[in-house]
Amino acid sequence: MDGTAPTAQLAAAQGTSGVLFSLVGVVIVAVLLAAFVWGRRVKAREPGPPGPEEQPRLPEGGPVGDIVESREPDDLAPTDHRRTPHELKGNGTRPRSDGK
């Protein structure tokens, strides 16, 4: 033996890596094209937008108005335990008692 360590080829030849990258690129492009075609087919199966005759109509009495009123908090009596949702009522407000 001449004292030198055996060497191994650690990198692929120039032509091999170029071919490999080209094949990977072609596969990625093919997958993207297939996804695009699949998406177009799915979109084509969906129903179109509603026509003018399918749009919502106003009620016969005209538009429904908003109720304008003053509200005040609906206070809770203090307790020693935590309240659960079924113990609460309403939305926490009530009409004002003075009628304003």
Tell me the quaternary state: single chain
Structure summary, number of beta strands: 2
Instruction: Please indicate the percent range of residues in DSSP E strands (runs of 2 or more).
Output: 5-15%
Q: Give the spatial strand order of the biggest sheet.
A: 1-2
Mean pLDDT over the residues: 83
Provide the helix percentage: 25-40%
Structural class by SSE content = mainly alpha
Gap between N and C termini: 108 Å
Calculate Rg over CA atoms.
Answer: 37 Å
**Helix/strand order, N-terminal first:** HEE
Unreliable parts: none
User: Major sheet: size, sense and barrel closure?
Assistant: 2 strands, antiparallel
- Please count the helical segments: 1
**What spatial form do the alpha-carbon principal axes imply?**
elongated
